[in-house]
Amino acid sequence: MKISSINDTTELSNKIRMPWLGYGTYKASGKELIEGVQFALSIGYRLIDTAEMYDNEEEIGKAIKKSGIPRNEIFITSKVWNTNQGYENTLKSFNNSLKRLNIDYLDLYLIHWPVSGKYIETWKALEKLYRDGKVRAIGVSNFLIHHLQNIMDKCEIVPMVNQIEFHPHLVQKDLLNFCKINKIQVEAWSPLMRGRINDIPEIVNIAKKYNKTPAQIVLRWDLQHEVVTIPKSVHKERIKENANIFDFELSEIDMKIIDGLDQNKRYGADPDDF
Questions:
Q1: What residues correspond to the site Lowers pKa of active site Tyr (predicted)?
Q2: Neighbours of 95 (CB within 10 A)
């Protein structure tokens, strides 16, 4: 698949189109976040990822309004937090997210983590929101194969997206394959391993070869694996750099070198023990 522009999108299982590159906002807030979102939108980003837990939906809503870009051109994702899971709580959480973002609908709503004993009821609430037309697509975050299978066995709608920790030290090939077979779009959080990619010699060497930065190499690697990626930065130069990944393609050999760095190592929590 050729991904050659920031405007390129993937088609979800329900035919909704989602940008391949997005702007992550975890641990960002205040004026610098508002300016970061506005700048990202001004240079072509159209996917903005947030969550109830990030406590920044209000700022993102302000930035989107200030941007002047029509709402229907921006793909907005949010997530229900663990303490608000369950059927009724999820419906309330969703409405609160809409109020804070100051919008009428979400493009994508996710279950943030697979809270045992709750995520099935939470998913049923997402199904209702989807059927009621309040959200264009629904999905999950940090779900492993057995969590996804459980939803598929007990519910009616297959998740359209699974946002997971995905980077050169955590490739999760079996999960990727499972999602591909079941038409679940994988999305990477923490794609740059919180800056650790700059310390991996193999990635540094590949970056020199393409005259790119290690971050650009890894984000391109995501795209060539057909994984949506949402790097986070509030610095204009970095936001711009992260978007400059559409004018080159990694060779099959370099893709395999990066794949070979897999250590099944998490820098975030384990979805089976969080």
A1: 79
A2: 12
